[in-house]
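Exercise 3.2. Students should predict the tertiary structure of the chain below and write it as structure tokens, then compare their answer with the key that follows.

Predict this chain's 3D structure.
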Amino acid sequence: MPSEAFEHTAAGALLLCRAEPDVVEPSARLLREQMLLAPAGREWSVLVPEGKPWVRGDEPVDRVLTGWATALAVGSTWPVLALWWDSDRSGCTLAAGFRRTVEYVWLANGTPVGEDEALRTFAARLGLDPVLDMQPLEALGRPDTESDARARLLGLLAVLARAGVTLPSGLGPGEPADRLRAVARVVPGVREVEWSGWRDVVRAELDVVERGPFGPWLRGPRARALAVAQMAAGLPLTAWAVRRRSGGWAVAGALLLVHGALGLAYDRVRAADAGSGRG
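Answer key:
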């Protein structure tokens, strides 16, 4: 039967990134939030928030996590999956680049309130098997009196295990944020992620991108076109977020503007270096 304990559990959240910690860290710093970053399986990392902005602010945990996931994904080549829960609901939000975020929600007693299409989109964007993985995913969208909200998220993690996700012991759905933070601090390979100033963060992020498959996009016409597109998308998103007082979405909009501005500046600097023989 569904556990009563989960219904009274304080809110908590995890961010799963499909990239190694070295790749995730520069983007995570741009969130300007203190977090703990640890390996979470083959080519996966997990971010554990050290703070609880959903407690001190006006936004619920799901909206905060959606903003963070979107902000991480817009300037990256890897998807971000946010897992969150509170006393009433649990859910997951998938962000990937400029694509529309996809969310699925369960009530505390495990009742699904999402759309089947969202689960299919999850599978497609994460590269899951359309047959073997879709069957258990579709089961998560059907009524089940034996599964509460925590069991639903554990079922999702079981599917993701086939894609390489392995959360460190003790980091799991249903745990309050304070316990998640305490557990994460002793995970082997954990590192603290905090704001260290624009110069250090931007330098680290550009180094990562230059070494990756998007390196050629940092210079030339493609780089300028991408930068302009990021700024064009970031400006209205930031304005909308400010009107709605949505901190998470404001960060996403600001990051788009920053990525766009940096892209234009970087392209000019590299072009000047090349022209003077230093490239």
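Discussion points: The chain has two domains: 4-192, 214-276. Residues 214-276 form one domain.
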